[in-house]
Amino acid sequence: MPFNIDPKQQAVRDEVKAFAEQHIYPVSEQLDQMGEPRKFPVDLYRKIGGAGFIGYAMPTEYGGKGKTHLEYITLIEELCYHDPAVGLLCAVGELATHPIIHFGSDEQKKKYVPDCAAGKRIPAFVLTEPEAGSDAANQKTTAVENGDQYVVNGEKIFIMHGDAADIGVLFCKIEGQPKLSAMIVDDTKQAGWEARTLKNKMGMRAATTGGIFLKDVKVPKANLLGEIGKGFRYAMTTLDSARIGVAAQGVGLAQRALDESVKYAKKRVAFGAPIAKLQAIQWMIADMATRLEAARMLTYKAVMLQDKGERFSLEAAQAKLYGAETAGFCVDRAMQIHAGYGFIGEFSQIEKLYRDQRVLEIYEGTSEVQRLVIAGNVIGR
Q: Taking the CB of residue 162, how many other CB atoms lie within 10 A of it?
């Protein structure tokens, strides 16, 4: 059983397990193996929202459940244990709503957050561009004032939920302003918002990813999020929080890889005995278990600072870096332990976990970016 810092965490795990048995396992393989073109799993997303998972840590006055961030992170960890792609569906709903909750007006919060929390509307965090990934400030998307609205043109890529979004928290440069601003696009059905589902996704397939072309997209000035020129700060603040979520994804995924490996090693017989008796296997499992627990503690440390209202940028980067790379280590060792039975997806979850893990070292800031953030904080101190 995973170590819990707070007694409430076990209740979260139990809640997710019951949900997974009823709603995730019956569709998990189907969603992963769905052919092209893929479709966003609206029905499952509505169930995730209906269970209160998307709004788990959102304020109750805006339709959330008001849980601590530690409870929310435990939720993501546990969802990703059962299916990382489903955990990602939930995490993206929270990520995309985060800027509205923290930087939006009270009117904007009341208008958008309850439906996002309930899974009734699908939000997207619309930041990345073809030439602005790790270099997020290098945005080419522009907004021009036109009466009481902005007219936006540009292109976005690798946007989680971007192909299905009802609401987009969009980052761009307003004409005449050198720094990024943020605005809420609540009409993604207009002709200028052209979204497509990106094909041949390696892993996390149930959580679809989109590319968006913006041609004269109209956004009311009332939908400006916060202050003009503060968009980069809003985005980085949101990503600090999201990085703890990615760390939790890694912890849940790594725990599943470890559990599957232990179970398999006990039943797989070679050379006249279960392979769990072999020192080579024991050492792999020992390394997996140790790294996993270290990743879990880094994740909990970061989120406990967040719950206390203290700075956590350094700790979030450390947790994200180590959690993502630990998941990579654990699925690699799990593949080695399972051998052919891991490489062929017909026989185990390891092949899927292997595919799902890889993006953890890329999105919400690559491992290289995390190292830059960590070094900047440590040297700066």
A: 28
Q: What is the pLDDT of residue 63?
A: 96
Rounded CA-CA distance 116/63 in Å is 9
Distance CA 327, CA 357 (A): 6
Q: How far apart are CA 141 and CA 143, in angstroms?
A: 7
208-217 mean pLDDT: 98
Detail the DSSP E strand segments found in the chain. 123-126, 142-146, 149-160, 167-174, 180-185, 193-197, 209-220, 224-225, 269-270, 273-274
Q: What distance in Å separates the CA atoms of residue 16 and residue 78, rounded to the nearest whole number?
A: 7
Q: Is the pLDDT confidence value at 315 over 80?
A: yes
| Average pLDDT of the residues of the chain | 96
Identify whether 364 is a catalytic site residue.
Answer: yes
Q: Which domains does the chain have, with CATH numbers?
A: 8-122 (1.10.540.10), 124-229 (2.40.110.10), 232-380 (1.20.140.10)
Tell whether the torsion through CA atoms of 184, 121, 114 and 118 is positive or negative: negative
Q: Flag whether pLDDT at 1 surpasses 80.
A: no
- At 250, which amino acid appears? G
Q: Which of 107, 325, 364, 368 is catalytic?
A: 364
Express as a percent the part of the chain with pLDDT over 70.
Answer: 99
User: Which is nearest to 206 in space by CA: 62, 376, 89, 375?
Assistant: 89
238's enclosing H/E stretch is helix 231-267
